[in-house]
Amino acid sequence: MKHALFAAALAAALVACATSPTGRTQLRLFSGSEMNQMGIAAFDEMKAKDPLANNPQQSRYVQCVVEALVRVLPPDWQQLPWEAQVFQNEQANAFALPGGKVGVNTGMFQVARNQDQLAAVIGHEIGHVVAQHSNERVSHTALAQTGMTAVQAYAGTRGATPQNTQALMSALGAGVQVGYLLPFSRVQETEADVVGQQLMARAGFDPAAAAALWENMIAASGRAGVPQLLSTHPDPQNRIRELAARAPSLAADYQQARQEGRTPRCG
Protein backbone atom coordinates (compact mmCIF):
# COMPACT_ATOMS: atom_id res chain seq x y z
CA MET A 1 0.00 0.00 0.00
CA LYS A 2 2.82 2.41 0.87
CA HIS A 3 4.53 1.67 -2.42
CA ALA A 4 1.30 2.33 -4.27
CA LEU A 5 0.84 5.65 -2.49
CA PHE A 6 4.41 6.67 -3.24
CA ALA A 7 3.99 5.75 -6.90
CA ALA A 8 0.77 7.74 -7.10
CA ALA A 9 2.37 10.73 -5.42
CA LEU A 10 5.37 10.58 -7.75
CA ALA A 11 3.14 10.34 -10.79
CA ALA A 12 1.12 13.34 -9.61
CA ALA A 13 4.28 15.33 -9.02
CA LEU A 14 5.57 14.59 -12.51
CA VAL A 15 2.42 15.92 -14.14
CA ALA A 16 2.04 18.88 -11.77
CA CYS A 17 5.20 20.78 -12.60
CA ALA A 18 4.80 24.46 -13.49
CA THR A 19 7.01 27.49 -14.00
CA SER A 20 7.30 30.46 -11.65
CA PRO A 21 7.42 34.10 -12.87
CA THR A 22 11.22 33.97 -12.75
CA GLY A 23 11.44 30.72 -14.73
CA ARG A 24 11.90 28.35 -11.80
CA THR A 25 10.27 24.91 -11.91
CA GLN A 26 7.52 24.51 -9.30
CA LEU A 27 5.40 21.66 -7.98
CA ARG A 28 1.69 22.55 -7.99
CA LEU A 29 -0.77 19.79 -7.13
CA PHE A 30 -3.81 22.04 -6.74
CA SER A 31 -5.91 24.06 -9.13
CA GLY A 32 -6.19 27.82 -8.81
CA SER A 33 -9.80 27.38 -7.70
CA GLU A 34 -8.82 24.99 -4.92
CA MET A 35 -6.10 27.33 -3.68
CA ASN A 36 -8.47 30.29 -3.74
CA GLN A 37 -10.99 28.36 -1.65
CA MET A 38 -8.26 27.44 0.84
CA GLY A 39 -7.08 31.05 1.10
CA ILE A 40 -10.58 32.41 1.59
CA ALA A 41 -11.34 29.80 4.27
CA ALA A 42 -8.13 30.64 6.12
CA PHE A 43 -8.79 34.39 5.89
CA ASP A 44 -12.34 34.00 7.21
CA GLU A 45 -10.98 31.96 10.12
CA MET A 46 -8.47 34.68 10.96
CA LYS A 47 -11.07 37.46 10.82
CA ALA A 48 -13.27 35.46 13.16
CA LYS A 49 -10.53 34.78 15.73
CA ASP A 50 -7.99 37.63 15.57
CA PRO A 51 -8.65 41.20 16.80
CA LEU A 52 -9.64 43.54 13.97
CA ALA A 53 -8.62 47.19 13.85
CA ASN A 54 -11.40 49.75 14.02
CA ASN A 55 -9.81 52.65 12.17
CA PRO A 56 -11.57 53.60 8.91
CA GLN A 57 -8.67 55.79 7.80
CA GLN A 58 -6.18 52.92 8.06
CA SER A 59 -8.60 50.61 6.25
CA ARG A 60 -9.00 53.07 3.37
CA TYR A 61 -5.24 53.57 3.21
CA VAL A 62 -4.51 49.85 2.89
CA GLN A 63 -7.39 49.32 0.47
CA CYS A 64 -6.10 52.15 -1.74
CA VAL A 65 -2.62 50.60 -1.94
CA VAL A 66 -4.01 47.13 -2.65
CA GLU A 67 -6.30 48.46 -5.40
CA ALA A 68 -3.44 50.33 -7.08
CA LEU A 69 -1.30 47.17 -7.13
CA VAL A 70 -4.15 44.94 -8.31
CA ARG A 71 -4.82 47.23 -11.29
CA VAL A 72 -1.47 46.26 -12.82
CA LEU A 73 -1.82 42.51 -12.27
CA PRO A 74 -2.60 40.21 -15.21
CA PRO A 75 -6.36 40.16 -15.96
CA ASP A 76 -7.01 36.75 -14.39
CA TRP A 77 -5.53 37.94 -11.09
CA GLN A 78 -7.45 41.20 -11.19
CA GLN A 79 -10.72 39.29 -11.28
CA LEU A 80 -10.23 37.77 -7.82
CA PRO A 81 -12.42 39.17 -5.00
CA TRP A 82 -9.60 41.24 -3.51
CA GLU A 83 -10.16 42.22 0.11
CA ALA A 84 -7.95 44.04 2.61
CA GLN A 85 -8.23 43.79 6.38
CA VAL A 86 -6.27 45.62 9.08
CA PHE A 87 -5.60 43.54 12.19
CA GLN A 88 -5.05 45.05 15.64
CA ASN A 89 -1.59 43.66 16.24
CA GLU A 90 1.54 45.65 17.10
CA GLN A 91 3.85 43.25 15.27
CA ALA A 92 4.97 44.84 12.01
CA ASN A 93 3.64 42.31 9.55
CA ALA A 94 1.52 41.85 6.44
CA PHE A 95 0.45 38.86 4.36
CA ALA A 96 -1.56 37.90 1.28
CA LEU A 97 -3.42 34.67 0.62
CA PRO A 98 -4.77 32.94 -2.48
CA GLY A 99 -8.22 34.18 -3.33
CA GLY A 100 -7.16 37.82 -3.16
CA LYS A 101 -7.01 38.30 0.60
CA VAL A 102 -4.58 40.81 2.16
CA GLY A 103 -3.95 41.44 5.84
CA VAL A 104 -1.90 44.23 7.42
CA ASN A 105 -1.12 44.58 11.11
CA THR A 106 -1.41 48.00 12.75
CA GLY A 107 2.25 47.66 13.75
CA MET A 108 3.23 47.90 10.09
CA PHE A 109 2.26 51.58 10.01
CA GLN A 110 5.11 52.31 12.43
CA VAL A 111 7.61 50.87 9.95
CA ALA A 112 6.11 51.61 6.53
CA ARG A 113 6.21 55.39 6.82
CA ASN A 114 4.60 56.35 3.51
CA GLN A 115 2.47 54.84 0.76
CA ASP A 116 5.49 53.71 -1.28
CA GLN A 117 6.92 51.73 1.63
CA LEU A 118 3.53 50.20 2.40
CA ALA A 119 3.23 49.27 -1.29
CA ALA A 120 6.64 47.60 -1.03
CA VAL A 121 5.54 45.19 1.67
CA ILE A 122 2.05 44.57 0.25
CA GLY A 123 3.52 44.16 -3.25
CA HIS A 124 5.94 41.59 -1.86
CA GLU A 125 3.09 39.64 -0.25
CA ILE A 126 0.96 39.79 -3.41
CA GLY A 127 4.09 38.59 -5.21
CA HIS A 128 3.88 35.37 -3.17
CA VAL A 129 0.29 34.92 -4.39
CA VAL A 130 1.05 35.65 -8.05
CA ALA A 131 4.05 33.30 -7.96
CA GLN A 132 1.75 30.65 -6.45
CA HIS A 133 4.11 29.95 -3.58
CA SER A 134 1.27 28.73 -1.37
CA ASN A 135 0.33 26.09 -3.94
CA GLU A 136 3.96 25.05 -4.12
CA ARG A 137 4.32 24.89 -0.35
CA VAL A 138 1.05 23.07 0.32
CA SER A 139 1.95 20.58 -2.41
CA HIS A 140 5.38 19.85 -0.93
CA THR A 141 3.93 19.66 2.59
CA ALA A 142 1.27 17.21 1.51
CA LEU A 143 3.69 14.92 -0.31
CA ALA A 144 6.26 15.07 2.49
CA GLN A 145 3.72 13.97 5.08
CA THR A 146 1.74 11.07 3.69
CA GLY A 147 1.75 11.18 -0.09
CA MET A 148 -1.47 11.40 -2.03
CA THR A 149 -3.66 10.72 0.99
CA ALA A 150 -2.47 14.04 2.41
CA VAL A 151 -3.07 15.74 -0.92
CA GLN A 152 -6.65 14.52 -0.85
CA ALA A 153 -7.03 15.64 2.77
CA TYR A 154 -5.78 19.13 2.00
CA ALA A 155 -8.03 19.34 -1.05
CA GLY A 156 -10.96 18.52 1.22
CA THR A 157 -10.40 21.41 3.61
CA ARG A 158 -13.18 23.44 2.05
CA GLY A 159 -15.19 22.07 4.95
CA ALA A 160 -12.23 22.22 7.30
CA THR A 161 -12.07 20.91 10.81
CA PRO A 162 -10.21 23.14 13.30
CA GLN A 163 -7.19 20.83 13.04
CA ASN A 164 -7.16 20.92 9.25
CA THR A 165 -7.64 24.67 9.24
CA GLN A 166 -4.62 25.14 11.51
CA ALA A 167 -2.45 22.98 9.28
CA LEU A 168 -3.73 24.74 6.20
CA MET A 169 -3.07 28.25 7.49
CA SER A 170 0.44 27.21 8.48
CA ALA A 171 1.12 25.89 4.99
CA LEU A 172 -0.43 28.94 3.33
CA GLY A 173 1.73 31.33 5.36
CA ALA A 174 -1.06 32.78 7.46
CA GLY A 175 0.34 31.40 10.68
CA VAL A 176 2.06 34.65 11.64
CA GLN A 177 -1.29 35.79 12.97
CA VAL A 178 -1.94 32.74 15.10
CA GLY A 179 1.47 31.49 16.12
CA TYR A 180 2.30 28.57 13.84
CA LEU A 181 4.06 30.05 10.83
CA LEU A 182 5.80 27.89 8.26
CA PRO A 183 8.13 30.42 6.61
CA PHE A 184 8.55 30.77 2.89
CA SER A 185 11.85 29.52 1.53
CA ARG A 186 14.70 31.86 0.63
CA VAL A 187 14.10 31.20 -3.06
CA GLN A 188 10.43 32.10 -2.68
CA GLU A 189 11.26 35.23 -0.70
CA THR A 190 13.67 36.43 -3.37
CA GLU A 191 11.11 35.70 -6.06
CA ALA A 192 8.43 37.65 -4.18
CA ASP A 193 10.88 40.56 -3.86
CA VAL A 194 11.39 40.59 -7.64
CA VAL A 195 7.68 40.33 -8.48
CA GLY A 196 6.59 42.76 -5.77
CA GLN A 197 9.09 45.46 -6.72
CA GLN A 198 8.02 45.20 -10.37
CA LEU A 199 4.37 45.51 -9.35
CA MET A 200 4.92 48.60 -7.23
CA ALA A 201 6.86 50.34 -10.00
CA ARG A 202 4.20 49.59 -12.61
CA ALA A 203 1.51 50.80 -10.19
CA GLY A 204 3.25 54.17 -9.79
CA PHE A 205 4.97 53.58 -6.45
CA ASP A 206 8.67 54.39 -6.12
CA PRO A 207 10.58 51.06 -6.35
CA ALA A 208 13.45 52.54 -4.31
CA ALA A 209 11.12 52.53 -1.30
CA ALA A 210 11.45 48.74 -1.02
CA ALA A 211 15.02 49.05 0.26
CA ALA A 212 14.01 51.91 2.58
CA LEU A 213 11.24 49.77 4.06
CA TRP A 214 13.70 47.07 5.03
CA GLU A 215 16.07 49.64 6.51
CA ASN A 216 13.19 50.75 8.73
CA MET A 217 12.52 47.14 9.68
CA ILE A 218 16.10 46.68 10.82
CA ALA A 219 16.02 49.94 12.77
CA ALA A 220 12.80 48.83 14.47
CA SER A 221 14.37 45.53 15.49
CA GLY A 222 16.29 47.26 18.28
CA ARG A 223 13.07 48.33 19.94
CA ALA A 224 10.22 46.50 21.62
CA GLY A 225 7.91 44.64 19.28
CA VAL A 226 10.53 43.24 16.90
CA PRO A 227 9.01 43.07 13.39
CA GLN A 228 7.79 39.56 12.71
CA LEU A 229 9.14 39.75 9.18
CA LEU A 230 12.69 40.00 10.49
CA SER A 231 12.28 36.68 12.29
CA THR A 232 11.05 34.82 9.21
CA HIS A 233 12.67 36.57 6.22
CA PRO A 234 16.34 35.78 5.54
CA ASP A 235 19.38 38.07 5.35
CA PRO A 236 17.85 41.56 5.60
CA GLN A 237 21.10 43.37 4.76
CA ASN A 238 21.57 41.30 1.62
CA ARG A 239 17.93 41.87 0.72
CA ILE A 240 18.40 45.64 1.03
CA ARG A 241 21.40 45.54 -1.31
CA GLU A 242 19.48 43.52 -3.90
CA LEU A 243 16.39 45.72 -3.73
CA ALA A 244 18.48 48.89 -4.00
CA ALA A 245 20.45 47.47 -6.95
CA ARG A 246 17.25 46.46 -8.77
CA ALA A 247 15.45 49.80 -8.32
CA PRO A 248 17.27 51.73 -11.13
CA SER A 249 16.26 49.08 -13.68
CA LEU A 250 12.61 49.70 -12.73
CA ALA A 251 12.82 53.49 -13.03
CA ALA A 252 11.46 53.40 -16.58
CA ASP A 253 8.40 51.41 -15.47
CA TYR A 254 7.85 53.86 -12.63
CA GLN A 255 8.13 56.91 -14.88
CA GLN A 256 5.85 55.36 -17.50
CA ALA A 257 3.24 54.62 -14.85
CA ARG A 258 3.30 58.22 -13.69
CA GLN A 259 3.06 59.52 -17.27
CA GLU A 260 0.04 57.26 -17.89
CA GLY A 261 -1.76 58.63 -14.85
CA ARG A 262 -1.01 55.89 -12.36
CA THR A 263 -0.21 58.25 -9.49
CA PRO A 264 -1.56 56.70 -6.29
CA ARG A 265 -2.60 59.13 -3.57
CA CYS A 266 -3.31 56.77 -0.71
CA GLY A 267 -1.90 58.47 2.34
UniProtKB/TrEMBL annotation:
Domain Peptidase M48: 56-246
Protease as UniProt keyword: yes
Pfam families: Peptidase_M48
Co-factor(s): Zn(2+)
Free-text comment on the cofactor: Binds 1 zinc ion per subunit.
Zinc keyword on record: yes
Keywords: Hydrolase, Metal-binding, Metalloprotease, Protease, Signal, Zinc
Signal peptide interval: 1-18
InterPro entries noted in UniProt: Mito/Outer_Membr_Metalloprot, Peptidase_M48
Family: Belongs to the peptidase M48 family.
Protein name listed in UniProt: M48 family metallopeptidase
Organism: Coralloluteibacterium thermophilum
Lineage: Bacteria, Pseudomonadati, Pseudomonadota, Gammaproteobacteria, Lysobacterales
